[in-house]
Write a structure and sequence with these properties.
Elements (H helix, E strand, L loop, with lengths): L1 E7 L3 H12 L4 E4 L23 H12 L5 E4 L3 E7 L2 E6 L2 E10 L4 E2 L7 H4 L4 E2 L2 H4 L8 E4 L8 H5 L6 E4 L8 H10 L2 E3 L3 E7 L2 E7 L4 E3 L2 E4 L3 E2 L2 H6 L23 E3 L10 H25 L2
Parallel strand pairs: 1-2, 1-6, 2-3, 6-17, 8-15, 9-10, 9-15, 10-11
Antiparallel strand pairs: 4-5, 5-6, 7-16, 12-13, 13-14
């Protein structure tokens, strides 16, 4: 079996790309391993018409709508390898190998929990990355931001839009410059430089932050940006990554450094949200459709 495009990843980016390509009458295989990038998230927000939708429901609706398009096939498969060249890829899963003219990676990223007791358990429940996605539901509470370096200190200032009670925690890992301390002070933001020992919870919700010296800080919501890495398949393909580990693509075509392999969604940038990933998937699909249509019409 051969397809115009094999899409790897069935989240918002992959579903949106499959929809655009299906409506353009391209033969598409969408492969979804079943592991959601936002597995801990309870709701999708900031996605017009889908605000507050549980992620699994979002995926079910997406698949239902794709069923309208006979050239789009969805399979619950983990892709194990991709070999070949532009126009002649071999995409292999546990069930066999299919051919593809092009490949679109929508695999998202893997979040690596910080080595703080309680972090993994509270991720997606009381610990979040994006205030646009989760800030409304927890507005006007006591928020913390776990900063991992000076370069991230611009972030907590925007949190004041959702709450007046913000504390920045450096976990004892770096010094806060005096000019930034002054800005925080003017905004009413506290700075805590002592190391964090553990996150204390009640009924799966953050209650307080315990410091290494035994002190306790009351806190109901924590924002953090833990390290992220690409899934194994992306790393094996050898596509070029930027200094932060995100896949580099042509800004217009969305093609990676490997000819014929494209990318869309969270694996491209720290700017990660369902609606942003969906838009990125449609962008890549549109460019793929244009390229394939011209190629098939002109014979090369």
């Amino acid at each position: 079996m051969s397809y115009d495009v094999v899409i790897v990843g069935g989240g918002p980016a992959g579903l949106s790309a499959a929809l655009a390509l299906g409506r353009a009458r391209k033969r598409v295989l969408l492969c979804d391993s079943g592991t959601r990038r936002n597995a801990a998230a309870e709701r999708i927000h900031n996605f017009v018409t889908r605000d507050g939708t549980p992620p699994d429901e979002f995926r079910a609706i997406g698949r239902q709508q794709l069923a309208t398009y006979p050239r789009v096939e969805v399979r619950d498969l983990r892709i194990e390898s991709i070999v070949g060249t532009r126009g002649a890829f071999q995409v292999t899963s546990a069930t066999g190998t299919v051919g593809a003219l092009r490949v679109l990676l929508c695999t998202g990223m893997i979040d690596e929990p910080l080595a703080i007791e309680g972090f993994r358990e509270l991720w997606g429940r009381s610990i979040f990355q994006c205030p646009y996605c989760h800030g409304w539901e927890v507005q006007d509470r006591r928020w913390g931001y776990l900063a991992r370096g000076v370069q991230s200190l611009h972030f907590p200032l925007q949190l004041r839009g959702w709450t007046r009670d913000v504390v920045v925690l450096t976990n004892g890992s770096f010094d806060v410059p005096e000019d930034m301390r002054a800005r925080f002070s003017a905004a009413g933001i506290e700075v805590e430089t002592r190391p964090v020992a553990r996150l204390a919870a009640r009924e799966d919700r953050l209650q307080s932050i315990e410091l290494a010296d035994g002190a306790t800080i009351a806190c109901e919501v924590l924002f953090a940006h833990p390290p992220q890495r690409q899934v194994d398949l992306v790393r094996k393909l050898g596509v070029a990554l930027d200094d932060d580990g995100y896949v580099q693509v042509d800004p217009v075509s969305r093609e990676t450094s490997v000819p014929g392999i494209y990318a869309g969604g969270d694996l491209l940038s720290r700017m990660q949200a369902a609606v942003v990933a969906a838009a990125s998937g449609v962008h890549a699909a549109g460019m793929l459709n244009h390229e394939l249509t011209v190629e098939l019409a002109t014979g090369g």
